[in-house]
Amino acid sequence: xxxxxxxxxxxxxxxxxxxxxxxxxxxxxxxxxxxxxxxxxxxxxxxxxxxxxxxxxxxxxxxxxxxxxxxxxxxxxxxxxxxxxxxxxxxxxxxxxxxxxxxxxxxxxxxxxxxxxxxxxxxxxxxxxxxxxxxxxxxxxxxxxxxxxxxxxxxxxxxxxxxxxxxxxxxxxxxxxxxxxxxxxxxxxxxxxxxxxxxxxxxxxxxxxxxxxxxxxxxxxxxxxxxxxxxxxxxxxxxxxxxxxxxxxxxxxxxxxxxxxxxxxxxxxxxxxxxxxxxxxxxxxxxxxxxxxxxxxxxxxxxxxxxxxxxxxxxxxxxxxxxxxxxxxxxxxxxxxxxxxxxxxxxxxxxxxxxxxxxxxxxxxxxxxxxxxxxxxxxxxxxxxxxxxxxxxxxxxxxxxxxxxxxxxxxxxxxxxxxxxxxxxxxxxxxxxxxxxxxxxxxxxxxxxxxxxxxxxxxxxxxxxxxxxxxxxxxxxxxxxxxxxxxxxxxxxxxxxxxxxxxxxxxxxxxxx
Length: 513
Hints:
Layout: H1 2-17, H2 21-24, H3 27-30, H4 32-39, E1 60-64, H5 67-76, E2 83-84, E3 97-100, H6 108-122, E4 128-132, H7 141-149, E5 154-158, E6 166-169, E7 172-175, E8 178-179, H8 197-200, E9 206-209, H9 211-214, H10 218-230, E10 234-237, H11 242-252, E11 259-263, H12 265-273, E12 309-313, H13 320-329, E13 333-337, H14 339-344, E14 386-391, H15 402-414, E15 422-426, H16 428-437, E16 442-450, E17 453-457, E18 463-467, H17 476-482
């Protein structure tokens, strides 16, 4: 019996091999009704789960809305070699790029146009596009998201930043566990905070990807993302920890490059962690390095002699006063320029103008008057001449006046800077305005001083440390200034105010950025 069946099977195979190809071609048509029926359902194509896109470190194009966000992203991506301040600048294909669109200073329509032009210019290079947005949904979040998602195969929205206490649960941004709309994080914004990410996106159709989905495993999460994207919706993803973001990054890298992502520095950090090399946090004055400890990127080495440092605090955040006080206690000269005169006439902040706390010295930065030695607790006074510029307290901040205040402050500072002065800048808008005034078009990322505070260098060798206005503990400015000092001259840290642990940064920016 078995032998007979075998002979029959062989005979059938031989007969089939003699059939003309024209007779075989109709077979796919016979299955057509079944295929048509299946196409009506949201199928998830099978994809390999082994490995990941190991070119992620050299194929990302990050479009940031302000300079502090751009610097943050550059420090989180090991393969990033430069921060471009010119959105039209071209770079080598296949390289990680971080581009500051400076869209926070534009109108809503202008910001959308900047994003659309950047996508049109940089997507053909083949990189995976990521849009850096504010973790508290400030700025032109909705119009930029719509412009960024135009023409994409799908949009993932991932605003969580656990390192700063900013998480997303049930589609709601939370600040240290408190829903965003119940905090004062939007006190300098022109309207009320949104109650959810979906509300912040406006009319966009959204679907929530809950924590249970994120933590269900790689295959299940990817199935969930593909199903949502197939429905033509924007996916708002929950995340409370770096592990959640790592899971989302792994799933993202298995999706087509035409799927785009908009989110905070948390998802950029997760993508950076999947790169082949790591980045060491530098600490004060340290250098950004790979596993071998070599300095990354071109540019001049850190200075071996003292250089004057100008600290520009362009924020009215309530923590700024304490940060300035710690720096002043270590020998820095503080110049608080009156807000009324900066708004009325930016030139009024030049040397000789009155201010509410100090009278501006008639000399440039780096030639401050002698002061009594610092004898309080903590390290010895800073060896380099340091001058702090800020806006004098004015009570309630009018958000509409913020751009004029920042412009006036930066114009006043630019007029005093000697060519060899290093810079410490708080707030993305403040940093960009001053660097524009100094004709700086690119920065070389060097490393992180603390979360959000990024040390950079201009191509000409000027040191620059940039930080969002809302980040950092009371000793943040001290640490940022120390990062610019030569290694052998850096003060000891023993006895200083304890550093703010990760995830406990102050929550909001109360004024100009």
